[in-house]
């Protein structure tokens, strides 16, 4: 996540998502060049991610756009995890949950490349995939 730069800065908000798997693996989205990883949010032992939502800022025309700013997820036991993203935008709906016994096992993201002097947004969308 890139911290807010102030009135004259070009903010991007969320620049990447990383899933840390309980079997010591990880899956990382495409990453924008800005910001830093926040501390990991984890489900309780024996649980897995089953649903998520994004906080997204709608396009603002001539003003600085950030697109996705934060991500939240639900664990199979009902715990809600919320990343340390930016405050801009509104939370979208929760995704359909994974089927019973399944959990999130992969991801795909939409990332805007740097605009070279234009308005950068970073991460624009996320798809999470379920596996049994």
UniProtKB/TrEMBL annotation:
SUPFAM superfamilies per record: Vitelline membrane outer protein-I (VMO-I) (SSF51092)
Top-level taxon of origin: Eukaryota
One cellular component term from this protein's GO annotations in UniProt: extracellular space
UniProt cross-references to InterPro entries, sorted A to Z: VOMI (IPR005515), VOMI_sf (IPR036706)
Residue ranges of the TM segments: none
UniProt name for this protein: VMO1 protein
Organism: Callaeas wilsoni
